[in-house]
Design a protein that fits this description.
The complex is a heterodimer of chains A (about 110) and B (about 110). Chain A is an all-beta fold and about 110 residues long. Chain A contains no helices and eleven strands. Helix content of chain B is about 0%, strand content about 55%. Chain B is globular, with a radius of gyration of 13 Å. The chains are: A mainly beta (about 110), B mainly beta (about 110).
């Protein structure tokens, strides 16, 4: 069975500081991994995805994530936080087979202070 | 054009009523989903259809009944609404090959 654990339900950073949101996964087969962002009262938007190509994945808005199989991790980073990055972030796991769904972590709320 | 659209965006109703939420996608995807997001923001899969066929049916009360008239539409009907049904319901469609989901903006259901 697949699962995702996001460490830290709330992360606070200062504007310009490094953003690090942690995600560990469990999957019995090679996974597809995703980070989604949700701004208040909006739907989910894809930030980036890992689908077994390059292990370092670059996404939108300056975010990137590295797939580390040995650590079963897919942490999300951004070198310099911006106020507009404040949102809810979800890590999700799936695999490419009919009848599967994205399984989401519980989410991490990112707060950015000036 | 909105890729995945849901209506209505907001729904306020009394306990015991029946309500429906509609979803349409114009991406040409074969697979669609309903997710429920609770007050703690946790996202839980409810149902999935692939080309009008039900392929995922999680442990959901049978008061919830999805219907897919064609592969571009997936509707959710809820009978005898309860307080605990209050949540945001998200529709999504899946891009084949990458597993990426495209989400609608959500339908916020409030049961009084």
């Amino acid at each position: 069975a697949q699962s995702v654990t996001q460490l830290g339900s709330h992360v606070s950073v200062s504007e310009g500081a490094l953003v690090l949101l942690r995600c560990n996964y469990s999957s019995s087969v090679p996974p597809y991994l995703f980070w989604y962002v949700q701004y208040p009262n909006q739907g989910l938007q894809l930030l980036l995805k890992y689908t077994s190509a390059a292990t370092l994945v670059k996404g939108i808005n300056g975010f990137e994530a590295e797939f580390k199989k040995s650590e079963t991790s897919f942490h999300l980073t951004k070198p310099s936080a911006h106020m507009s990055d404040a949102a809810e972030y979800f890590c999700a796991v799936s695999y490419n087979q009919a009848g599967t769904a994205l399984i989401f972590g519980k989410g991490t709320t990112l707060s950015v202070s000036s | 054009d909105t890729a995945v659209s849901q209506t209505p965006k907001y729904l306020v109703t009394q306990m015991g009523n029946d309500k429906s939420i509609k979803c349409e996608q114009n991406l040409g995807h074969d697979t669609m989903y309903w997710y429920k997001q609770d007050s703690k923001k946790f996202l839980k899969i409810m149902f999935s259809y692939n080309n009008k066929e039900l392929i995922i049916n999680e442990t959901v009360p049978n008061r919830f009944s999805p219907k897919s008239p064609d592969k571009a539409h997936l509707n959710l009907h809820i009978n005898s609404l309860e307080l605990g049904d209050s949540a945001v319901y998200f529709c999504a469609s899946r891009r084949e090959g990458t597993g990426e989901l495209f989400f609608g903006e959500g339908s916020r259901l409030t049961v009084l």
